[in-house]
Amino acid sequence: MIDNIQQRDSELQDTQGRQFAGLLDTHANRLSMRTLKRLEDARLQAVRLHEQKMAGNVHNGGSTLGKVFFWADHHRAVVTGLVLATVVAGLLLVQTSSFKVDTDTMLLGSELPPEAFVDRGFEPSLNRRVNFDETQEVRSIKL
Amino acid sequence: MASSQELSDFLRSVERRAFKQTVYAVRDEHVALDIVQDAMLKIAEKYADKSVGEYPMLFQRILQNTMRDYWRRQKVRNLWTSLFSSFGSGDDDDERDPLETIDVEDASKDPSVQLERSQTMHLIEKALERLPARQREAFILRYWEDMDVAETASVMGCSEGSVKTHCSRAVHTLAMILEKQGVGMKAIAQLGVES
């Protein structure tokens, strides 16, 4: 019983809704010439774009390079991330290589042979050298 | 995959309704034209590979999203313009174009029927503009675009129950507003038949 009433209400509501919509539809056909012209222009523009898209002419003619640019254009966040990652990796690489150069210079310029720096027996002597160098540095700053 | 001719036919069949629908939402014909144009370009550019059968729902979804984008931008713009409100003039209504007043076609020859219909339409349009956005959206998609409840729910991104509630409230509100103005549902039905 309740279901029947609800269904009747729903049907009545649909009928009323369609009556309103019918009037709106009639009215929508009465637009100004200027509005119709703009809508037509927009439609033609969209159709032209669709034609280009279908012909594969959009974004540099669909060539491999064109596809790369198209992909890059539509994945800006990814491309920005890749560029940033490359820059950071480059900086790290430069820093590592300059550290290597410093180490090589130190090893070659030292009085001790390079093997001495990996020999545990030389550790106390190397520590003393480091302490001595630091003291010299402090003295030179004070002077 | 739809051909360009099919796309053209589809756009031709929906453009007027899409425009009016957008006008009810944004209340500015120029903005509405821009939104409809954006929606047309988006469907042509991004969904060229879809079949023509998918276009009605896709187009509605794009149109609704473009309208939402407009509201979002408008919100930010309003924030700034309210800060510098003394510079605003807002008197664009003075620019009237005679072309705007020309009706393309009117099937009814009887001036009294034309006047009555025009007045009723004005009332319905004003009432539609006053509806909450979601109710208006549901009403237009369900009854004007003739989508079923499931399709409307899919376009609006809500449940079917919500669509039914929105539609019911919208129809009741419209009927109530018109009733207050002395236009009953019988008159609406009669005007619908005559047109």
Structural commentary:
The complex is a heterodimer of chains A (143) and B (195). Chain A has helices at residues 2-28, 33-55, 58-61, 64-74, 76-109, 123-142. With 143 residues, chain A is an all-alpha fold. Chain B has helices at residues 4-26, 29-46, 55-83, 111-130, 133-144, 149-156, 160-180, 185-194. Chain B is mainly alpha-helical and 195 residues long. Classes of the chains: A mainly alpha (143), B mainly alpha (195). At the A-B interface, helix 1 and helix 2 of A face helix 1, helix 2, helix 4, helix 5 and helix 7 of B.
Summarize the SSE layout with pairings:
The complex is a heterodimer of chains A (143) and B (195).
Chain A: H1 2-28, H2 33-55, H3 58-61, H4 64-74, H5 76-109, H6 123-142
Chain B: H1 4-26, H2 29-46, H3 55-83, H4 111-130, H5 133-144, H6 149-156, H7 160-180, H8 185-194
Brief characterization of the structure:
The complex is a heterodimer of chains A (143) and B (195). By secondary structure, chain A is an all-alpha fold.
Runs of chain B in which pLDDT lies below 50 for 5 or more consecutive residues are: 89-96, 98-105
For the termini of chain A, the CA-CA separation is 106 Å
- Which secondary-structure class do the elements of chain A indicate? mainly alpha
Write the H/E string of chain A, N to C.
HHHHHH
Tell me the structural class of chain B. Answer: mainly alpha
Multimeric state? heterodimer
Largest protein interface?
Answer: A-B, 37 and 57 residues
Parts with pLDDT < 50 across at least 5 consecutive residues of chain A: none
> Average pLDDT across residues of chain A?
79
| Total of helices of chain B | 8
Q: What level of helicity do the residues of chain B show?
A: over 70%
- Please tally the β strands of chain B and state the result: 0
Shape of chain B: globular
**Counting H and I runs of at least 4 residues, what is the number of helices of chain A?**
6
The N- and C-terminal alpha carbons of chain B lie at a distance of 37 Å
State the order of secondary-structure elements of chain B, H for helix, E for strand.
Answer: HHHHHHHH
What is the alpha-carbon Rg of chain B in Å?
19 Å
Give the percentage of residues in beta strands of chain A. Answer: under 5%
